[in-house]
Amino acid sequence: MSVYVDTARHPFRGYIMCHMIADNLAELHLMADRLGMERRWFQAPPKASHPHYDIPKHKRAQALALGAQEVGQRTALHYAARLGVEWAQAQADEKRQLRFKRTVLRTKNYAICSKEKSRGEDQTK
Q1: Which of 21, 41, 78, 103 is most buried, with most CB under 10 Å away?
Q2: How does residue 120 score in pLDDT terms, banded at 50, 70 and 90?
Q3: Predicted TM-score of the model (pTM)
């Protein structure tokens, strides 16, 4: 399972929130279910810029313990755009699908850099 939580820290109603995204919608919703999150908390366009869940700090720690990977905000943007392509296809929203595809292309180096960095860290341990 490839679920990602970013390093964002946004205050909201007394909580510190970040974003949870995944390689596909099924994985995202599965992790949300494992965290006890309600499906109505899922955010997608037009309410949000990309499909994701906002999760509080304590749920973030739980997600990491369940196997989610921590990523920076730029890397999260790449994975969010990839998830957005799937979401837009399911919604038959060609305009957003094209927009997400362009973002994937523009941000692909962020994902590559993140993977290389994590490989390098693994080799030094």
Answers
A1: 21
A2: very low
A3: 0.83
pLDDT band at 8 (very low <50, low <70, confident <90, very high): confident
CA distance 15 to 27: 24
SS3 of the chain: the string is: CCEEEECCCEEECCEEEEEEEECCHHHHHHHHHHCCCCHHHEECCCCCCCCEEEEEHHHHHHHHHCCCEEECHHHHHHHHHHHHHHHHHHHCCHHHHHHHHHHHHHHHHHHHHHHHHHHHHHHHC
Smallest CA-to-CA distance from 19 within 58, 94, 73 is with 73
Q: Which residues contact 100 (CB under 8 A, 6 or more apart)?
A: 50, 81, 82, 84, 85, 87, 88
Q: Domain boundaries in the chain?
A: 3-124
Which tokens hold the place of 40? Answer: 């109505």
Instruction: Give the CA distances from residue 24 to residues 9, 57, 71, 108, in Å, rounded to whole numbers and listed in that order.
Output: 23, 22, 16, 17
